Amino acid sequence: KMRRSSSEGSLLQREKQNQPKVKKLGGSKFCLNLSMKLGGLGPDYETIKEKVKKMKLQKEYSKQIKEYNMKNITVLQRLPAKPPVSVARQKALEYAKSIPRPRTFLARPEQEVKEALPQAPAAPSLPKIPSLESLWSRHEKEKEAVAAFEALHIL
Questions:
Q1: Structure confidence at residue 1 (pLDDT)
Q2: Residues 102, 93: Cα–Cα separation, whole Å
């Protein structure tokens, strides 16, 4: 075996002291680390204080940002009252003014319409159109007939 100097031996002893102590129970499967710090029962006030402090800082920062944004937004809303009209839109409006509009026809009285239409020869006569009153009475009769059918559940 090799002999070690006393300085090397003291280094090894310090390394062994720094290593966590392990205790074996029964067999090699169960090992406990005795130097491990276990958590206790009850709340951990130190971590809670840190979290509360962090949340307060976040709220203060958010308030500052909100105030800054409110000041800047109100200034921006007042400035642009009406957006400027683009050059292309102005050209389109000028072009639309120069296009002739279609003429609208006004309703003429019936006499003028009859005079304007050329009279057809009398030989091929068209059947007469029944008057409005006769059509209305026919409509009422057919309406009654349909109501009778519905009453009898035929339709």
A1: 47
A2: 18
How large is the average pLDDT for residues 44-58?
93
Q: What is the DSSP string of 11-67?
A: HHHHHHHHSPPEEEETTTTEEEETTSPPP-SS--HHHHHHHHHHHHHHHHHHHHHHH
In this prediction the pTM is 0.25
Q: Both tokens of residue 65?
A: 């940002």
State the DSSP string of 60-129: HHHHHHHHHHHHHHHHHHHS-SSPPPPHHHHHHHHHHHHSPPPPPPPPPPHHHHHHHSPPPPSSSPPPPP
pLDDT category at 133 given cuts 50, 70, 90 is confident
Q: Please, are residues 58 and 43 in contact by the beta-carbon 8 Å criterion?
A: no
Four-residue CA torsion sign, 7, 8, 9, 11: positive
